[in-house]
Amino acid sequence: MSYTRHRQGNLPASRQLDGGIPLSKLIAPFLKSLRLEETRDVNDLQDRWEATLGKAVAAHTRPGALQNGELVVYVDSSPWLSELKRYAAREMLANLQKNFGKERIRSVRLQMDPGS
Predict the structure, then answer these.
(1) Rounded Cα gap, residues 83 and 115, in angstroms
(2) What confidence tens digit (pLDDT) does each residue in 17-47 have?
(3) Domain ranges of the chain
(4) Which one, 43, 49, 57, 106, has least CB within 10 Å?
(5) Is 113 helix (H, G, I), strand (E, B) or coil?
(6) pTM of this prediction?
(7) Is the separation of the CB atoms in 114 and 74 below 8 Å?
(8) Spatial contact of 8 and 16, defined as CB atoms under 8 Å apart
(9) Cβ atoms of residues 108 and 96 within 8 Å
(10) Cα 103 to the chain's mean position, in Å?
């Protein structure tokens, strides 16, 4: 028995290979699971970080992970972390949303940079 005859002749119609699931329906969830879009967004943030937040703030911060609309912002020292949390978090979020969209960045979480 040939493969073709077996495939067409012995499988139920719902299991036949012609007219199967479009490849795009399989690939999209897979790519989303890899978080490639979030990685692209973080790279975009890095490229425009200083222009978005200003030279002084950018010198002491860097974008971290972006997951489900929450951006982690790493800060290089405790005094800067305290200052930003107290006085600049809202303005920082507003500037990020203005430049990258409210859908992409819904909140900001400031924390110490693990590399510092």
Answers:
(1) 20
(2) 556 777 667 766 765 665 556 566 678 899 9
(3) 35-112
(4) 43
(5) coil
(6) 0.66
(7) yes
(8) yes
(9) yes
(10) 11
